[in-house]
Amino acid sequence: MRESSHLGATVTPLAGAGQRLAVGGPPLAEDVPDVGRARDAKPEAGIERTLLYVARTPDPLLCAYLKSRGWEISTARTVHEASRLVKPEAAYAGIIDLTGFAPREFAGLETILRLQQVGWIALTDDTRLTDAEVRRLIRHYCFDYVHVPVAHATLDYLVGHAFGMVSLCDLDTPAAAASQDDDEMVGTCEAMQQLFRTIRKVANTDATVFISGESGTGKELTALAIHERSARRKATFVPINCGAIPHHLLQSELFGYERGAFTGANQRKIGRVESANGGTLFLDEIGDLPLESQASLLRFLQEGKIERLGGREQIPVDVRIISATHVDLEAAMRDGRFRADLFHRLCVLRVDEPPLRARGKDIEILAHHVLHKFKQDSARRIRGFTPDAIEALYNYNWPGNVRELINRVRRAIVMAESKLISAEDLDLAHFTAQQTVTLAQAREAAERRAIEAALLRHRHRLTEAAADLGISRVTLYRLMGTHGLRDEKTFFGGDAENQAELPPDGQD
Ligand SMILES: Nc1ncnc2c1ncn2[C@@H]1O[C@H](COP(=O)(O)OP(=O)(O)OP(=O)(O)O)[C@@H](O)[C@H]1O
Ligand SMILES: [Mg+2]
To answer: 455 or 178, which is more confident?
Structure first.
């Protein structure tokens, strides 16, 4: 059962600086990624430091300098050349000089930026950075970016770091696959890195945490990660799905009962709250909690004591409460289905899970992660994904998020008839590049992705997201309507600004 496997999560070291968060990881102090190790990476005997340099006009002086620093450089002037140079089994640092490419070439560049085994550093200038598409490419696919002109030594330092990071993320080796933990969180994109930082910070306190995110984004995994990194990690993590327990049983399930409390209560039962004493109580689907239980929970949060059903004793219980929902709690509060006072008690700290479609390259990394975890389910030796499968992974919208991705890849492992999983095996044949996509559709998809990412980055603060996107607040609001993003504030972490009426403070 998943709950018990969570309870038994073991302590493992952080797998890959910043790439993954091992849920059973050590506490905060030892948890700081050892970036120095990757940054200072010196060429070790037998390990070739390979670097892919993509530029319209490669700089010969830079190439000479990097060669003198021990880099094995491959230079490419076009996307086509670059994709021919990359060997699937090798790790690379990558330099992509965005200053020489025209905006119409960005879609092509994205194909190589997605290459899982390349750790990219972007070279750019102020003009390029005003382009939202350039900013998106950098955010999603690059470890860092620098303005040109850049000191060669700085670039050497940065590519050393990027190379160290992709070498750690060597997902295709059996050893890497074997080391993958069940409870490990995979994430390299900016949104996930931010989530990991938030997890580390909130783990350090005892305040209540409210996790919001679409279904299947990893809310429970995050709750467990917080518990395993907190001072309470030696005590239990007790998850309870408020939506899965019949309402009339919830009170006794949460708070327990005394013998004789009602017909059939033959012996005392300890409730979930009490059984989490000293540890963490995870209230999943908190939006489904009936009003009666909301009142009892609020009382408990105020007093720190529970009363078992049929009992008179007030029992002090020390638990940290983490709650989660995939529904819009603000709407539930407006409709009177959820108590605002309880919500404010539960939501001292807030964590927002990014939807999978906003995680860029992580989609592919997660697909490989799942493949390695479950590839023994297939009689044949599955080695990876076809290019059309990769394309489809990026084009699909993933309404069921990570859970859906896991299910699709697992099913494909069983169904695949060759050594590579195809888009058809994933049941995503309609999302391949062969599918005709008009320019208008491609633009629309890119626009939606950029808006979603900006909203997520700024926790749905429209003014800041609009500034980032280089548009007015009014335009952003209108575009959110066009792309159906206005109802999703709960996923992004709605704040006061969202709930206010939008003043007509900007024109196009
Ligand atoms: N970043 C991640 N890396 C690896 N696995 C993940 C990640 N996020 C989620 N998963 C896996 O995806 C599945 C769904 O995660 P989880 O149950 O935590 O999601 P959830 O948001 O609680 O979903 P729901 O809303 O349906 O309850 C689990 O098997 C979990 O291990
Ligand atoms: Mg859940």
So the answer is: 455
